[in-house]
Amino acid sequence: MYQENAQTNDYREQFRIYKAEQRKKKIKKLFKDIKRGKYVYLLMIPGILYFIIFKYIPIYGLQIAFKKFSYQGSFTSGEWIGLKNFYDLWEAPEFWRAFKNTIVISFMRIALGFPVPIILAILINEISLTKYKRVIQTVLTFPHFLSWIVIGGIAFNLLANQGAVNNFLELIGLHRVNFLMNPASFRYILVYSGVWKEAGWSSIIYLAVITSIDPALYEAATVDGANRYQKMWHITWAGMKSMVLLMLIMNIGHVIEGNFLQVYFLYNPVVYSTGDIIDTYVYRLTFERGVDFSFTTAVGLFKGVINLVMLMTANTFASKYSGQRRGIL
Amino acid sequence: MKSKWTLIISLILVICFMGSMLSGCVVQPQQTNSDDSRGDTIDDGTKTYVYSVNILGAEKEWLKDEKLKRWREQFKIEFNFLPVNWNDWGQKVRIWMSSGDIPDIVWIDFGTSMAQDYYSWVEAGLIRELKGTEKYQYVHEQLEKMKLDDILAVDGKKYLWPCTRDATIVDNISNRGFLYRRDWAEKLGLAKDDNTYTWDEMVEFARQCIEKDPGNAGKNKIAGMGCQSWAWPSSMGIEQMTGGITGANGYFLTANGYEWNARAPEYLEGIKIVKQLYDSGIIWVDQPLAKGDEAVSKFLAGELAILYDNVFPDQLAWFRKAMKENIPGFEYDDIQFMKVKSPNGRFVGIKNTEYWCISVFSAEMSDAKFDRLMKAWDWMLSPEGYYTRQIGIRGIDWEFEGDGVKYLWPYNSETQRYERPADYPLDLGRDAYLSIGVTEGFGFINPNYEGCKSGKDAYDYCIFLRDNGVLVETDYNIALFRAENKDKYGSFARDISDKVIQIIIDSKYEDVEKEWNAFLESKKAQVDLVIKELNDGLLGK
Fold this sequence. Notes:
Chain A is mainly alpha-helical. Chain A has helices spanning 2-36, 38-56, 84-91, 93-113, 115-126, 130-141, 148-159, 164-171, 183-211, 215-223, 228-253, 260-266, 272-275, 278-288, 293-322, and strands spanning 67-68, 79-80. Chain A has 2 domains: 2-68, no CATH class; 91-322, MetI-like (MetI-like fold, Orthogonal Bundle). In chain A, 23% of the residues are buried. Helix content of chain B is 41%, strand content 16%.
């Protein structure tokens, strides 16, 4: 019995030494990596600091979601009120409307908007005239650099009752349509104005993937007699598929992000039923009604938790798809 | 060699990134004088103090104003401007206060609904007590004249400076109202000499403008009625119906205690009127989409017959000038205030609070700095300061003579006026006076002030409302009443406005009453809590 115990202890000791050696090796390897990529690590410092200052330190302030907000002193000075803000949130019908709209609009963006930059990238890739290709890319990318305030103005001038689109409809004998004040059409306006603004920009990543596909594959396919569409399907699409899936999963992970600026500059009370998202709801509560930073922080925290769950779920899918132990996180 | 350059470039990039990022985290300096550490030393008259003050727009033109330049030099003060606009003003003030990054002088568009914030700032020690103001004669007189600082005193201490309204407004009666194209009315044969119209006459005028296009703007371009986005939809019939009945505080007193404005029968009638006007195309069809002054632009472009706005004298002068420059044949008198009887037969005016804004001062401001600011303000409020801001520089533009002043400008026997030289710098400095609240009398004693004629029109409009109208007044007791639910819900103004807009655009006329009642029912529990607090607190019920 004693001998068995001694043997077990001996194994344990050997295992401990082995683990310690492994740890040492890992640390050594880490330092070696850092030394080798020292400039890359140097350039990472601002990024890490950014996350610490603007993302992690503010987490400390989340405690006001459980307190009665006071302008006095720091976040710690308010009176603790437990989960009261969350109960209020639970009972606020406006919040649930905003929650539903956020989810629906995000999924509509994915369903109707996500394929557009992929198609664009494939089509741009098929253009053989380099100059024309560059012009097209520039034109398509340009709207990305416009702010939503500008696009809000453009939308007003185009889609308002006395806007260009309605003037054209009337010119060809059709009735004017109240686009921006129609709850049924408002979500589509959000989706397609977003597509117009971002599709060109988003296609860049897919173009980069397409560019990395070995040209020999296309040459071999040509020799084998493949036509243009077959090459697009079997080579281009096959080459970018994994990136598409990755982007899709990441988009699903951000489904609770509603794009505040876009909605804020396009919506009005008539379309709250379909267009009011969590961010605009929080904005109205914070700055257009009585100020209650605690309640709005509670809404933000709730949104953050949902986001985290979505992101973890997306990560699980990513890991399953890639067959690796870890996903995209 | 390559490695060395990589290191240098990496370091430069890192420093740039970190520098730009960290500079965003730095607390804004309250002053930029290198020789002055927050002005804590005794004022020796030699140092220049820099004050951060928020101001509408990023206006800096007034720094070029010669009168103000002399004023700044005399008191050794400079200003850093922190721009705000109408849309983000309240938001910025609240962010400054909650972050502790407070300008020296915070100029606030103070609605009574902000009283709760104000008390919180006082309790948190963020704003400076206005103590020792007795030693500045004119500052003291000004504060004595105002009521708001007394009403909002905390434990007998004052913390705010109310900015008076322009005295061209009679008895604080607002210039809010309808402006209309009188030239179009004349063309259509609908003009009235005294500019008074019944509601139906106004609607008929708008209708004929849409149908007959008297301004030749083009097919489908003319709209009947429009308003600033802040006035939508209440100014298009609701305000006129409820005026003098429900008050301006969201709640009003009845024989049975306090009641919510939205529950008054006149409120529902008002909604129906707006709905009818919108459905029949009288109200500009894109009015609900406007987020600012789009209706004003439409009016200035000659595409709107009637505009509802807060048309203070300067603004009226500016409208007329802009339209004269842009619309062929337009004359100064072609836009006028339309005095409109409400659908229930009354002229309704809004009686403003005595102030239109307040200024508060950072608690971080030292005594010496505050003292210098008060001395500068005191001079600005003195007779010399008054004539300086109204006319110009003493000794160049005017001089004291007996109890009044004499102009030093050349006399024009044709116009029988002392006329300011044509190359005289413009009055750029008005905004500078706003945070002090000394715009009093603007435009009346200066014969060359371009707002004179419009000032007179605005003045006459207010006189008319004073003599003929019912005036909607702010009840400070209700507005500043503090209780848990009142603080939390206020008057539900935003909810009401959103619902009314939704009903106007999205409902059938026959469903208006049903939908409105359903809304009132949905808010009943919360509203009743506030009403109980008002009854308990103000009536002792």
